[in-house]
Fold this sequence. Notes:
Blueprint: E1 5-11, H1 23-49, E2 53-58, H2 62-69, E3 75-77, H3 83-88, E4 94-97, H4 106-115, E5 121-125, E6 131-136, H5 154-164, E7 169-171
Parallel strand pairs: 1-2, 1-4, 2-3, 5-7
Antiparallel strand pairs: 4-6, 5-6
Amino acid sequence: xxxxxxxxxxxxxxxxxxxxxxxxxxxxxxxxxxxxxxxxxxxxxxxxxxxxxxxxxxxxxxxxxxxxxxxxxxxxxxxxxxxxxxxxxxxxxxxxxxxxxxxxxxxxxxxxxxxxxxxxxxxxxxxxxxxxxxxxxxxxxxxxxxxxxxxxxxxxxxxxxxxxxxxxxxxxxxxxxxxxxxxxxxxxxxxx
Length: 192
């Protein structure tokens, strides 16, 4: 099997449009700066993993992302629709990834890729009840339809759907994300 491509989903770090749940604590500019740092940190982590990757972008034109991240970063427009619609478009084999997990290491990504050698899917559970990573050998569109994104039940619903379809999956270590003002206390190095 060819190695999975990491599909990093990222918004442009525009004030007022990125990390909006952090705005009450940091203001629009501060929240955007935290998002910028998280995306840059995640790309560095991906590079250290040695896995191929592409940034699935939204919130600004391709040229703005290229100016920010560099010409050597593969860029794919997310397109229209809700999160499920956008995730469904990623070709397999792939590892879907968000940029809001400060504790993510190259080892987590390498473990995810290795898991796909023996499982059909791999899931990295997040402490908030969602997941920070989802990998698959073949497209699994049923995981992305009629999902209540951003809720504490996303992980449970995802695992139940995998089990109902008899899809063999591997669970990675649980990690915390940085989405809400209370999360910032754990990551003081992200504060602007």
